[in-house]
Amino acid sequence: MARPPRTSGEDADPSKAIGGQGIAPAETAVHIGLDAKVLVLNRAYAAIRVISARRAFVLLARDCAEVIDADGGSYANYDLTTWTELSELRRQFEPDAHDWVRTVRIDLAVPRIIRLTAYDKLPAQGVKLNRRNLFARDRNRCQYCGNLFPSSELSIDHVLPRSQGGPDTWENLVCACVRCNSRKGGRTPDQARMKLITTPKRPRRNPLISVRLGHDKYHSWKAFLDEAYWSVELK
C-alpha cells in the first residue's frame, strides 16, 4: 500500500516541531495524549489510516496536514496556528472533551482527525490477517467458553486443525483461552464436543477501528469511514 509522502524528520520528536511554532515544551512536562489515535484523511477526505497524535502533530507542524474538527454533522478546517488558538478556549470551556499535550506556554488539544493536504491515493482494500486483528475481531473473548481474557492469556485456535488440513484463514481461526485450547487439542469442535459461540468471519473493516468506534471520543470518525474506505491501516 502506498504511504503518505514522508518529510525530513517526520519521525523526530514532535515537541521540537511544535517548538517551531513558538511552543517549546518544558523538560519536565508530561505529554499527555501523544499516544492518542488520530484518523488520517487524504486530500479528498477519504480515510486512509490511523496514526498516533505524536506523528499527527509532526505532520501539522510541517504544514503537511490540517485539523478537521467534526461536530454535529459539520466540520471545519484549521492549520496548527489556528488550532493552537482554539485549544486555549477549549481548555477553558471543555477540558474533558479532549486529550491534551502539555507544553510550556499552552495545552494543545489532540485533534481526532487530520487531512493530508497533498495526498490523493486510497488504501488497498483488505484487512491484514494477524494476531492483533484476530484478538480485536473476537474482542479478546474465548470463542468456546465465552469468557474475556487479556491478550497474554489467549491463543489462536484452528477450528479445523492443521493436522486435518485446516487453513490459516479468517474463517478458520478464533481466539481461545489456554484451557479450552488444551481441551480441544487436535480435534474439531464437534469431535471435542465443544461449540463455537460465534461463527468466525472475515471482518468488513479493520476490527481495531470498530473497537475504537465504540468509544465516544472517536464518534467523529464515523462520518468519514464510508464502506468504500473501510481498510484503514494502523501505524
Helix content: 10-25%
Strand order of the largest sheet: 4-3-7-1-2-10
The radius of gyration over CA amounts to: 21 Å
Task: Name the structural class.
Answer: alpha+beta
- Mean of residue pLDDT values: 78
Distance between the termini: 12 Å
Summarize the structure.
By secondary structure, the chain is α+β, with helices and mostly antiparallel strands. The protein has helices at residues 14-19, 53-61, 80-93, 131-137, 178-184, 207-213, and strands spanning 37-41, 47-52, 65-71, 74-78, 100-102, 107-109, 113-116, 154-158, 173-177, 233-234.
Structure, explained:
This protein has 235 residues and is an alpha+beta fold. The protein has 2 domains: 14-124 and 208-234, no CATH class; 131-184, DNA Binding (I), subunit A. It is 21% helix and 19% strand. It has helices spanning 14-19, 53-61, 80-93, 131-137, 178-184, 207-213, and strands at residues 37-41, 47-52, 65-71, 74-78, 100-102, 107-109, 113-116, 154-158, 173-177, 233-234. The strands form 3 sheets. The protein has a 6-stranded mixed sheet with strand order 4-3-7-1-2-10. A two-stranded antiparallel ribbon has the order 5-6. A two-stranded antiparallel ribbon has the order 8-9. Strand 1 (37-41) and strand 2 form a beta hairpin. The chain is elongated. The two termini are 12 Å apart.
Q: Which helices and strands occur, and which strands form pairs?
A:
Blueprint: H1 14-19, E1 37-41, E2 47-52, H2 53-61, E3 65-71, E4 74-78, H3 80-93, E5 100-102, E6 107-109, E7 113-116, H4 131-137, E8 154-158, E9 173-177, H5 178-184, H6 207-213, E10 233-234
Parallel strand pairs: 1-7, 2-10
Antiparallel strand pairs: 1-2, 3-4, 3-7, 5-6, 8-9
